[in-house]
Amino acid sequence: MTIGSDTAEDIAATIAKRCASLREQRDLSLQAVGERAGLSKSHVWDLEQGRSRNPTVDTALRLARAFGVSIDYMIGIGTEQPDLHPDALRIACEIDALLRRKT
């Protein structure tokens, strides 16, 4: 799979970098990201470490929702993050995760 000139491995590397960066920016643990995204803590760690060379679209979408960014940003097509205060974004993501658990 390619997007422009990016290979699946390039996209996986972008997801890894952005996941680690967003997790750090939002001061989230691996466990918290996993819970928000519906992924295991170890899966999030493997993604961040580049051990998952071909993450699924579902995984990328789950991570994007967990961090409150677009799928385009998560996979490297877009470069802009939402222009929200970090605490507002954190609260919005937590509420979204809670609401998704109830459905």
Percent strand:
under 5%
Query: What is the helix content?
Result: 55-70%
Give the SSE string. Answer: EEHHHHHH
Broad shape = globular
- How many strands appear in the DSSP assignment? 2
Largest sheet: 2 strands, antiparallel
Strand order of the largest sheet: 1-2
Structure description:
The structure is a single chain. This protein is mostly helical and 103 residues long. It has helices at residues 8-25, 30-37, 41-48, 57-67, 71-75, 86-102; strands at 2-3, 6-7. A hairpin with a 2-residue loop joins β1 and β2. The longest helix is centred in the first third of the chain and has 18 residues, at 8-25.
Q: Can you describe this structure in just a few lines?
A:
The chain is mainly alpha-helical. The chain has six helices and two strands; from the N terminus they run E-E-H-H-H-H-H-H.
List the helices and strands and how they pair.
Blueprint: E1 2-3, E2 6-7, H1 8-25, H2 30-37, H3 41-48, H4 57-67, H5 71-75, H6 86-102
Antiparallel strand pairs: 1-2
